[in-house]
Automatic annotation (TrEMBL):
GO molecular function terms attached to this record: hydrolase activity
Coiled-coil annotated residue ranges, if any: none
InterPro entries linked to this entry: FA58C, Galactose-bd-like_sf, GH, Glyco_hydro_29, Glyco_hydro_29_N
The entry's keywords: Glycosidase, Hydrolase, Signal
Family, as annotated: Belongs to the glycosyl hydrolase 29 family.
Residues in F5/8 type C domain copies: 360-503
PANTHER family: ALPHA-L-FUCOSIDASE, ALPHA-L-FUCOSIDASE-RELATED
Pfam families: Alpha_L_fucos, F5_F8_type_C
Signal peptide start and end residues: 1-21
Gene3D superfamilies on file: Galactose-binding domain-like (2.60.120.260), Glycosidases (3.20.20.80)
Top-level lineage group: Eukaryota
Protein name: alpha-L-fucosidase
Length: 510
């Protein structure tokens, strides 16, 4: 009897210690929502600026043209989606309404829409859909990429500070309700437009799913309009719970502080202000706030040409220039939203399509060379409760987004190592922190074993790791073992993935 009790007590103790060993680390401060996590994994997608400005050569427009100005000769939204999908882009965001106020979908909120122009009338007569937003959404679905919309909060068409003599006396001369001191409620109009977009259906009746809604912060007039961000957010959440709402500083994703396709090497996913607070400066947005109050990761909106809208005389960036952008955005944990504007035919320009293709080839040729396979030998300075099965260093190379190597709570520095099995020419690394449980790491280094026994730091200045870091070396190094060291963290670090890029030897072609 006594013996039995003793055995049971021992079993209990043993199972308690197993349970303790299996406890995952607690989330650290702010963590991403599921929608933010899925959005972060999209990494690279396109911005399509299309509308009257495409035909007038303007960027912001002045809301002077009638809808007839919108007259693409060969509009084919399938071509957009095909070109983007083939270039490995995960989605497209279309300007449903830019600053000039022309709506590209068949809204009931204004007469100022492409659907009222002769292009749309002719298309409808011929039995084709003429709702550009719906057409683009259908094409995105057909080619398996995400779809999102841009709806400009600033609206020149409704802004009394922006004179519109060109529309005087036409049905397009509509009430000037933009501004806190103007008569009428612009927020109500905006909510109605937003509601139409988030509840839109494809021609066959299936709902259109949005992955992102882009609410621009730009304004070119002094008219003060207090936007009802909470109201806008509620409409989006109610109808599109998976859509990320982008604004200058959130709520779901923030501006990266510039429009040039780069960010500073240190980038935190958190900030401590909302859309209702004073705006951060560019550099504050680039860096973010470590241990900030809100999970508001950055997105870099950049352009393949000089302008946002298509202008024939502007050069298109080369694949190499786009690759450089990619490394300075996606390679620094920031999503890249690349503007690829349809031309006056209503097609992605041939030169842009060719450059996107070369960009895709370069990404693949540079990054798709992981030398690490799940069967390789790994070791670590320590493992959480010694539980190698759950938290060992092999979790870093198992290809799963849900597993990670970690140590005991309170252990803020440490290393893990992977043995490549034989000698390779290593020239780059891709590392990922398990951000589902928050961002913790402030400094890291990567060493390569050279001359048999010593580690040489080949990446010595890693800072905020976050979702994904790409570190490329200027010159390959011959090595068979790689060591990742976490040298600063604010809570026990969680390493989700390490990829080691390289080729067989340093004399062969890269
Ligand atoms: C893991 O993350 C990658 C992006 O980094 C994504 O493409 C993939 O779908 C994710 N896998 C799972 C199972 O979620
Ligand atoms: C434009 O659309 C509005 C309703 O959205 C309609 O009342 C108006 O007659 C249309 N105008 C033209 C010129 O088609
Ligand atoms: C817009 O909607 C109206 C009313 O449902 C319809 O008559 C018209 O054909 C539509 N126009 C376009 C461009 O879809
Ligand atoms: C903002 O919109 C919400 C929801 O539509 C509404 O309840 C609230 O009164 C609005 N706030 C202001 C200041 O207009
Ligand atoms: C990607 O690169 C690998 C080699 O790194 C190559 O085998 C493959 O064909 C490339 N794929 C594409 C689509 O370029
Ligand atoms: C580390 O140094 C390299 C080479 O100077 C540079 O390209 C990289 O951006 C630096 N990284 C950080 C995180 O500062
Ligand atoms: C290095 O790689 C190239 C091309 O893959 C091959 O031709 C050459 O024989 C290799 N050299 C050595 C020393 O392994």
């Amino acid at each position: 009897m006594k013996y039995n009790i003793w055995v049971r007590a021992a079993t209990l103790l043993w199972s308690l210690s197993i349970t303790a060993a299996q406890d995952a680390p607690a989330p650290y401060m702010q963590v991403p929502s599921q929608r933010q996590l899925e959005w972060q994994q999209q990494e690279l997608y396109a911005f399509l600026h299309f509308g009257p400005n495409t035909f007038t050569g303007e960027e912001w427009g002045r809301s002077q043209s009638r809808p007839d100005i919108f007259n693409p000769t060969d509009l084919d939204t399938d071509q957009w989606a095909k070109v983007l999908a083939e270039a490995g882009m995960k989605g497209m965001i279309l300007t449903a309404k830019h600053h000039d106020g022309t709506c590209l979908w068949n809204t009931s909120t204004t007469a100022y829409k492409t659907g009222n122009g002769s292009w749309a009338k002719k298309r409808e007569q011929d039995g084709f859909d003429a709702d550009v937003v719906r057409m683009a959404a259908g094409s995105a679905k057909k080619y398996g990429i995400n779809f999102g919309v841009y709806l400009s909060p600033w609206d020149i068409h409704r802004d009394p500070a922006m004179p519109k003599p060109g529309l005087k006396g036409t049905i397009y001369d509509e009430p000037q309700i933009f501004g806190d001191s103007s008569p009428g409620d612009y927020n109500a109009l905006y909510v109605q437009q937003l509601t139409e977009l988030v509840t839109m259906k494809l021609a066959d009746g299936t709902p259109i799913e949005l992955f992102e809604v882009w609410l621009d912060g730009a304004s070119g007039s002094d008219t003060v309009q207090t936007f009802n961000w909470t109201g806008f957010r509620d409409v989006i959440r109610q109808h599109q719970p998976n859509a990320v709402m982008w604004g200058h500083q959130g709520p779901d994703a923030r501006w990266v502080g510039n429009e040039d396709g780069f960010t500073l090497p240190t980038n935190w996913h958190t900030i401590s202000r909302t859309q209702d607070d004073v705006h951060y400066s560019g550099e504050e947005l680039e860096v973010g706030v470590r241990d900030g109050q809100y999970w508001t990761p950055a997105e870099s909106d950049a352009r393949i040409r000089d302008g946002w809208f298509y202008h024939a005389n502007e050069p298109s960036k080369s694949g190499a220039a786009l690759m450089d952008m990619y490394l300075k955005t996606v390679g620094r944990s920031v999503n890249l939203l690349l503007d690829v504007p349809p031309d006056t035919r209503g097609l992605i320009a041939d030169m842009d399509a060719a450059n996107l293709k070369e960009f895709a080839r370069l990404r693949n040729a540079t990054l798709n060379r992981n030398l690490v396979t799940p069967d390789l030998k790994t070791s670590a300075s320590s493992v959480r409760d010694g539980d190698i099965v759950s938290y060992g260093p092999a979790k870093v190379i198992d290809g799963s987004n849900d597993t990670y190597w970690t140590m005991d709570d309170g252990e803020l520095t440490g290393w893990m190592e992977v043995d490549l099995g034989s000698s390779f020419c290593v020239d780059g690394f891709i590392v990922q922190e398990h951000i589902a449980f928050g961002q913790r790491i402030g400094r890291y280094e990567i060493g390569a074993m050279v001359e048999g026994s010593t580690y040489r730091a080949v990446v010595s200045n890693g800072t905020s790791m976050g979702y994904k870091r790409i570190d490329l070396l200027e010159k390959g190094v011959e090595t068979s073992r790689i060591r990742l060291r976490i040298t600063q963290a604010n809570a026990v670090p969680l390493i989700q993935s390490l990829q080691v890029l390289g080729s067989r030897n340093c004399t062969g072609p890269l």
